[in-house]
């Protein structure tokens, strides 16, 4: 996601440690204590400006949400949204989503959202796609047994690649939408990119993919 560089973005995040958790590895295995409840935890990797994760947190107060984004200026824009409308069940992390086992213990996370992830269309960049098998292996570790990834994109190439990648990993493709906005799916919360691409007439694809029960491997 391209945004204008905010020179004071890092200071903005540091000024709100109650929302942007500065040393997430300290909470590894203890996130429910941070939230002060035993509700399930859902994370979004690459939350961008945070429209989806704030919308979800508002709509589902019984779930704890953590939005993850590696670009500091982008996190600061998401932070603006949370400051404008505080949400007790939402925290933000400014970290790289490839190191999630540093921040979350085995099976600590209930569900993962990927929305409009960078497509990296060149074959030589396949390893950077968030649905490449090395990322799935990290996701599987931090997710509960039978945990799920819910993925939306407008990019047909990345979508088809991801369906194949999930399936080759041994995941079950529980539900697949080839045109989400023309379907009867209820409760969809649009991301920034989803609004932008769908207003240009692009179709939105969605899949719910489930890991096998790792305790039975
Ligand atoms: N989900 C948002 C943004 C999509 S753009 C939306 O749908 O509008 C993809 C975002 O993922 C970018 O902001 C990029 O910085 C972030 N991203 C890509 N790889 C990441 C990683 N490994 N860890 C954290 N964020 C990542």
Automatic annotation (TrEMBL):
<keyword id="KW-0808">Transferase</keyword>
<keyword id="KW-0819">tRNA processing</keyword>
<feature type="binding site">
    <location>
        <position position="154"/>
    </location>
    <ligand>
        <name>substrate</name>
    </ligand>
</feature>
<feature type="binding site">
    <location>
        <position position="122"/>
    </location>
    <ligand>
        <name>substrate</name>
    </ligand>
</feature>
<comment type="pathway">
    <text>tRNA modification; N(7)-methylguanine-tRNA biosynthesis.</text>
</comment>
<feature type="binding site">
    <location>
        <position position="96"/>
    </location>
    <ligand>
        <name>S-adenosyl-L-methionine</name>
    </ligand>
</feature>
<comment type="similarity">
    <text>Belongs to the class I-like SAM-binding methyltransferase superfamily. TrmB family.</text>
</comment>
<protein>
    <recommendedName>
        <fullName>tRNA (guanine-N(7)-)-methyltransferase</fullName>
        <ecNumber>2.1.1.33</ecNumber>
    </recommendedName>
</protein>
<feature type="binding site">
    <location>
        <position position="118"/>
    </location>
    <ligand>
        <name>S-adenosyl-L-methionine</name>
    </ligand>
</feature>
<feature type="binding site">
    <location>
        <begin position="191"/>
        <end position="194"/>
    </location>
    <ligand>
        <name>substrate</name>
    </ligand>
</feature>
<feature type="region of interest" description="Interaction with RNA">
    <location>
        <begin position="124"/>
        <end position="129"/>
    </location>
</feature>
<keyword id="KW-0489">Methyltransferase</keyword>
<dbReference type="InterPro" id="IPR029063">
    <property type="entry name" value="SAM-dependent_MTases_sf"/>
</dbReference>
<feature type="binding site">
    <location>
        <position position="69"/>
    </location>
    <ligand>
        <name>S-adenosyl-L-methionine</name>
    </ligand>
</feature>
<dbReference type="InterPro" id="IPR003358">
    <property type="entry name" value="tRNA_(Gua-N-7)_MeTrfase_Trmb"/>
</dbReference>
<dbReference type="GO" id="GO:0043527">
    <property type="term" value="C:tRNA methyltransferase complex"/>
</dbReference>
<dbReference type="GO" id="GO:0008176">
    <property type="term" value="F:tRNA (guanine(46)-N7)-methyltransferase activity"/>
</dbReference>
<dbReference type="Pfam" id="PF02390">
    <property type="entry name" value="Methyltransf_4"/>
</dbReference>
<feature type="binding site">
    <location>
        <position position="44"/>
    </location>
    <ligand>
        <name>S-adenosyl-L-methionine</name>
    </ligand>
</feature>
<comment type="function">
    <text>Catalyzes the formation of N(7)-methylguanine at position 46 (m7G46) in tRNA.</text>
</comment>
<keyword id="KW-0949">S-adenosyl-L-methionine</keyword>
<dbReference type="InterPro" id="IPR055361">
    <property type="entry name" value="tRNA_methyltr_TrmB_bact"/>
</dbReference>
